[in-house]
Amino acid sequence: MTSPKLEQLYDELRQVDAGTHPRYLKRLRQIEDLCQEQREREDIAHELAVERIEFEYKKRKQQTQDELEKKEKELIQTMLADLDEMEKRIEWEYTNMEVSRICSANVIDSTKKTLRGRGGVLIEPPTYFNATPKPATPNITPDTRYLLTDSEIAEDNQRLFEVILVKQKLTYDGKVYKQGEEVHVENMEYGKFPAKMDCITDTVVSFKSTLPWDTRQIHASYSDLTEGRVQISKKRAN
């Protein structure tokens, strides 16, 4: 081997030891470029993952908030319906109490004759107006015409009713009812009586008795109908 060639090899060896060899530097730059590209790809993937997680979080949070607002509205409507029913019931009871009080009050007739006894004490002959009235015996016999039998009650308690509520229309246990239709309605408090479907909304169905002397009303929520606390049936044609 000639001396210049050997000298060149020694020179390249010194460059390798010093880390300044051109081929070494070229390869080092290639590795650094690949490393930089890989780091950039990882950063982009991380940002995309963060954006996806934030999107899913906001989406689920909004869904939960919407469901909460819907439940709150349904609860408020149910409470308002219950309060309205309670107010009407109290008003009905108060009106009946006032009527009973007026009917049982003694009416004084200023034109009737009286007798004066000893000591100037007025003695009134017993009449319709001043005689002590006998209290009327209340009729406590329950009306059993519309009560369910034990087997019917057991059958109803073993199943849930299929209910679909839309505005002015109700699908109950496979049958369609429309607002204004006359049906039979039943619950534990009032028993069973003929009624008209006075109002049908997305959450509440209101019933009013069709009997002229009856002021009973029922406001049934979706759960009342599905769980059987309020039951309805088609009115049979005479």
UniProtKB/TrEMBL annotation:
<dbReference type="InterPro" id="IPR013907">
    <property type="entry name" value="Sds3"/>
</dbReference>
<keyword id="KW-0678">Repressor</keyword>
<keyword id="KW-0805">Transcription regulation</keyword>
<keyword id="KW-0539">Nucleus</keyword>
<keyword id="KW-0175">Coiled coil</keyword>
<dbReference type="GO" id="GO:0005654">
    <property type="term" value="C:nucleoplasm"/>
</dbReference>
<feature type="coiled-coil region">
    <location>
        <begin position="54"/>
        <end position="89"/>
    </location>
</feature>
<dbReference type="GO" id="GO:0010468">
    <property type="term" value="P:regulation of gene expression"/>
</dbReference>
<protein>
    <submittedName>
        <fullName>Breast cancer metastasis-suppressor 1-like protein</fullName>
    </submittedName>
</protein>
<keyword id="KW-0804">Transcription</keyword>
<dbReference type="Pfam" id="PF08598">
    <property type="entry name" value="Sds3"/>
</dbReference>
